[in-house]
Amino acid sequence: MRIAMVFDGLQTGGIERVGADYARILVDAGHDVTIVNLRPNLNAMEQEFPVSCKIVHFDYGRKLVPEQYNKATRIWSWGKFAYPVISVLLSPVNVLLKIICRLKFYKKEKYDLLIAFSGHFNDLNFVANKFINANRLLGWMHGALYSYVLLSGGFLNLYKKIYNIIALVETGQEEVLLYNDYLNLNINKLYNPSFISEKQINDKEVVRLKNKYGKYILMVSRFNYPHKDPYTLIDAFTLFYDKHKDLNLVFVGDGPDKANAVSYAKKKGNDVASHIFFEGEKLNTPDYYKSAFMLVQSSCFEGLPTTLIEALYFNLPIISSDCPTGPREILGNNEYGLLCEVRNPEDMAEQIISMYEDEELYKFYKEKSKERVVDFMPNTIQDKFFKIIETIEEQEK
Known about the structure:
Layout: E1 2-7, H1 14-28, E2 32-37, E3 54-57, H2 72-75, H3 79-104, E4 111-116, H4 121-128, E5 134-141, H5 145-151, H6 154-162, E6 164-167, H7 173-179, E7 186-189, H8 203-213, E8 215-220, H9 230-241, E9 247-252, H10 258-266, H11 270-273, E10 276-278, H12 285-291, E11 294-297, H13 306-313, E12 318-321, H14 327-331, E13 338-340, H15 345-357, H16 359-372, H17 378-396
Parallel strand pairs: 1-2, 1-4, 2-3, 4-5, 5-6, 6-7, 8-9, 8-11, 9-10, 11-12, 12-13
Helix pairs in contact: 4-6, 8-12, 9-15
């Protein structure tokens, strides 16, 4: 099959890493894969995709998508009047861009499957309105249907056009479909795979990290509040540090709120702040997983957090905020890791202390990580993914 995967930029992040994994699955199965980057200036992750993938750039930001402004109908009283006007104004712009896209890249090409992988307004609209000529369409939701509906009704308008949807979790899905009975969507649940266990470990770097940081808590995340919440973890670490001063906290990642997080940590005083480290964006995250003592994920919202899945591969005990979707799907009811309340540093600190002080509990969750990771093995996900594609083909015939 000829398949095109469309992304809202390829900066370093969980969605992009998962996209690279799926591209590998498709390539290994013999499919011809094209990667479309709609924000060419965000390209750090392009090197992570299989070399056989054709990567093309087409500059198409979210602001050009009419459905981006659907949210205005909920926020402002005048929004219900402004939204139709904006849609009318942007419609000819999108028609022109579609023509340019087809002429520039795909005049003679037709794809068997076109995938909106980022699940943002621009890649969804790009796919829903077939900027690339394709037989079948597929949209990706990196979370639950209800969370997208809460963000904007514009997502529903695009999902209706695409019809075939993959969701990471089913939380709230039945309720959304019940109260929006006009929707007719083919939704399939599919976990994210990860090939991180196959990535090469730099043993010298692992030793260096252990020597530099000793026992340390790791959080791998973009700094993008309130989606990601480093502040609660910093507060929890401060509470933990009052009892145990031999543990460090290491953040790996970058993003718009990183400077704020660094400033917030400094306000905790030199004693605490000197044990909190911000490593920035790293491509060698396996070395950090391998050398860490535990992983803590502090988020207010999640889809299916890639970092938790990756930590399972390295048998790291995990503590995560129990945000509406994602962590509980992976960790169960404290079955494979410890959950704590969202934005509750006291509860998070209590879980960290439990994991740190109870050696048997720590060993228990290391073993449970080995058990749970089987469900996210590439072969397991690959079989389910191809069955979903076959379902799409049958419905389109």
